[in-house]
Write a structure and sequence with these properties.
4-stranded antiparallel β-sheet; mainly beta; globular; 1 helix
Length: about 190
C-alpha cells in the first residue's frame, strides 16, 4: 500500500485515476490527484512518489481538467482534458509535455483507451453521440460520429484489423467502427 506524502495530502485529495498499462517498461505508475489536477508518478522500485504538477492549456491558461489517464507500452502518459478539447501526452523519459487538440473545440474527451500499436481512441461527449480517434504519434486527429445518437460508450477497443469496438450503456448495442472508412456496424 502506498500513500501520498503528508505535505501533498489535503482534505480534497482523491487519487481517482491511475495508469498501469506501461508499468512493465519502467516500474512506474501514473496517478492523478483530483485536488488541483496534479499528476503523480510512483516508482515501484524505490517506493518514491514524484509530483509533476498540474498542466495548463497553452491557449487558455486554464488547468487541464484530466478525466482519464492512460499509458502506452513505453509508459508515456495520456491525459484526457474533460474541461476543454485536449489530449496531453507526457513523455515517460523526458517528462516533456505535448498537447494535441481534438478536431472539435471543447470536445471534452474522457474514458478513453490507448491502443498499444497505433491510434489512441477516446470518447467525445457533446450530445453524447460522438467518438474521436486521435493519433498523437502523428500529431493529428480524426473524428467519427457515432451510429447511435444517444449512445454513451465507456470503453473502446481497437483490433488488429483496423476496427474499434464499443458497447453502449443505454441502448444495449455493440458497435464496430472501421477506422479507415469511418463506417459503423451495429
Amino acid at each position: 500500500m502506498w500513500s501520498t506524502p503528508k505535505e501533498w495530502d489535503t482534505d480534497a485529495g482523491q487519487l481517482g485515476h491511475i495508469a498501469i498499462e506501461g508499468t512493465h517498461s519502467d516500474n512506474k505508475v501514473w496517478i492523478k490527484n483530483s485536488d488541483g489536477g496534479h499528476i503523480y508518478r510512483l516508482d515501484l522500485v524505490s517506493d518514491k512518489m514524484e509530483n509533476l504538477g498540474a498542466f495548463k492549456d497553452p491557449r487558455s491558461g486554464r488547468r487541464i481538467g484530466t478525466y482519464g489517464i492512460h499509458s502506452d507500452a513505453q509508459n508515456n502518459a495520456y491525459l484526457l482534458d474533460f474541461a476543454a478539447g485536449n489530449i496531453v501526452r507526457i513523455d515517460a523519459k523526458t517528462k516533456n509535455v505535448a498537447i494535441y487538440l481534438t478536431p472539435t473545440p471543447d470536445s471534452r474527451p474522457r474514458r478513453g483507451r490507448v491502443d498499444q500499436r497505433r491510434p489512441f481512441v477516446v470518447c467525445r461527449i457533446p450530445g453524447q453521440r460522438h467518438r474521436a480517434c486521435s493519433t498523437p504519434r502523428r500529431a493529428q486527429s480524426s473524428e467519427w460520429e457515432g451510429a447511435d445518437a444517444v449512445e454513451r460508450a465507456l470503453r473502446r477497443r481497437r483490433r488488429r484489423n483496423g476496427e474499434a469496438w464499443t458497447g453502449s450503456m443505454l441502448t444495449d448495442r455493440v458497435s464496430r467502427l472501421d477506422i479507415q472508412s469511418g463506417q459503423y456496424t451495429e
